[in-house]
Structure formats: structure tokens, C-alpha cells
Amino acid sequence: MQIIDIDINDLSLLEKFIAGLGRSAETFRYFRNRPPQAIAAHICTRLLLDDDGEPIGYGHLDPADGRVWLGIALVERAAGHGHGKILMASLLEEAERQGLAEIHLAVDNVNVRARALYEKSGFKLIEDRGNLSVYRMGF
Fold first, then answer.
1. Across 8-138, where does the E strand assignment appear?
2. Burial state string for 32-68 with b = 16 or more CB within 10 A and e = fewer than 16
């Protein structure tokens, strides 16, 4: 496993990740309304590669709407193996390194596995919108 930082020059690798999401695309909608080029505005964008160099995980810190938003996703076949925890730790370390005061995330309420990861990582629920919850973590 390897975590790499990507930028606008790595769109083919990002597109490969997006194409391989499988059912994970049902709850990870970040790129439904945004082109892959949206990563140009991120504080950081990371991919988790498997031992064969295939992208199996994605994470970002995205400044938008006056907040910094954390996003994370795994391809369907990689879920449930601790890869999300690895990506989360990497992004939280980067947020601290960047001196961010707080970060937010939004998650579908049906994504129980992700919600558990976020809560174990220290995120606190600040808003329940019925089908979506918003979490915050301060540093």
C-alpha cells in the first residue's frame, strides 16, 4: 500500500479510481457534479494505491463555503479492510500540518461504516439533515 499526493497532472489516475468505485459511488457523490479538475482547488488530494499500483482509495481537504471539507472514499472491493482508517489518519495529519483550526465532512446516514470511522477518529455530529449528517473536528 502507498499513499500519494495527486494534482491536476494526475487526472488519468483519478479517473481510474472514479471508474472503479463500484457500489461505493452510491454514497460518494463528490464527482457527480464536479469534474475531476476540481482537485486543482484542494488543499490536498490523495490516492491510496494497492500493491499493484491500482487506486483503491481517495481523500481530500477541500476549502469551500468558508469551511474546509474532508472527503474520503474507497472502491467497493477495498472497503472493510482498514484502508479508510489509513487514509483518514493521513488527511488528519495533513490538516494539522496545515494549521487548520477545524475540518468538516458530510456523510450519508446509510453509510454506517463511514460514520463509525469518523466518530472513532474524533469527529462530532453537528447537524442531522435526515438522510445526511454533517460532522466537525477541531484541532
1. 44-49, 55-64, 67-74, 102-108, 124-128, 132-138
2. eeeebebbeebbbbbbbbeeeebbbbbbbbbeeeeeb
- What pLDDT was estimated at residue 94? 97
The architecture that CATH gives domain 2-100 is: 3-Layer(aba) Sandwich (3.40)
Q: What is the pTM of this model?
A: 0.91
pLDDT at 134: 96
Domain ranges of the chain: 2-100
Structure-block grid coordinates of residue 51: 500493491
Instruction: State pLDDT tens for residues 67-90.
Output: 999 999 999 887 777 888 999 999
- SS3 assignment, position 45: strand
Query: Residue 51: which residues within 8 A CB-CB, separation 6 or more?
Result: 1
What would the pLDDT profile of 104-139 be if each residue is shown by its tens digit?
999 999 888 889 999 999 999 999 988 999 999 998
| CA dihedral angle for residue 135, residue 91, residue 46, residue 6, rounded to 10 degrees | 110
